[in-house]
Amino acid sequence: MPRPRTPLLDRRRIVDTALRLVDEAGDLTIPALAGALKVSPSALYHHVAGRAEIVALMRVELVRTIGEQSMWDQPWDAALRTWAHAYRDAFAEHPGIVRLLATAPLAESFMHELYERAVATLEDAGFAAQDVMGLITALESFILGSALDLVAPDVMVDAVDRAATPRLADALDAVPAGRERADRAFGLGLTALIEGYRALLGRPAPVRSGAPVAISDQA
């Protein structure tokens, strides 16, 4: 039989299908992916080395638009805000992948380059090297949670007894509906994080034995 004009399988189709499966199931297996693509599992290995590479390709697909150099040419606080918004929006498109990527090692050079820019921005702003990855991890944890919140039900605290918990009931009444609820929570949390970082940066470092102390030692 003649070969089809369009290849039945390529890396682009593998990644797109993998993203769809993870959105639906929250996980990814080679047999499930092969079944969705209507090929044998062995056929996938002609295009990818295995599940770990597929996960890496999905990560690159999601973050390829959020690491532009121009983002990091801004002051550190503006750069973090821009990164956080872009990061959250990218992961909100595929919320099922958050757990999968949060537990997969970052072995891709593309991701290393992105973190290199983030680290350089924070260190150049004056944050201590031993604190920088902690600051990035804290921000990313908040972003990933906020991406999940975008697709969460509007009402997560339900069936409240107003007589027993009147302050909670009033607070829930004040929450805006729909996307505005998630956006407001994200904006408040992001501002709190960045202002907290700014306070840490502005705190004079005490001297112990003639050596400056990292931000993490100043609690």
Please tell me about this protein's structure.
- With 219 residues, this protein is mostly helical.
- It has ten helices and two strands.
- The protein has helices at residues 11-25, 30-37, 41-44, 51-63, 76-92, 98-102, 109-125, 129-150, 166-173, 179-202, and strands at residues 207-208, 211-212.
- Strands 1-2 form a two-stranded antiparallel sheet.
- Strand 1 and strand 2 (211-212) form a beta hairpin.
- Helix 1 (11-25) crosses helix 2, helix 7 crosses helix 8 and helix 8 runs antiparallel to helix 10 (179-202).
- It is flat.
Taken as a percent bin, the fraction of beta residues is under 5%
Order of strands, widest sheet: 1-2
Dominant shape: flat
Average of pLDDT: 84
**What is the gyration radius calculated from CA atoms?**
22 Å
Low-confidence stretches: 206-219
User: Structural class of the secondary structure composition?
Assistant: mainly alpha
How many strand units? 2
Give the count of helical stretches.
Answer: 10
User: Main sheet, how many strands, which sense, barrel?
Assistant: 2 strands, antiparallel
- Along the chain, the helix and strand elements come as HHHHHHHHHHEE
Helix content: 55-70%
Q: What's the end-to-end separation, in Å?
A: 72 Å
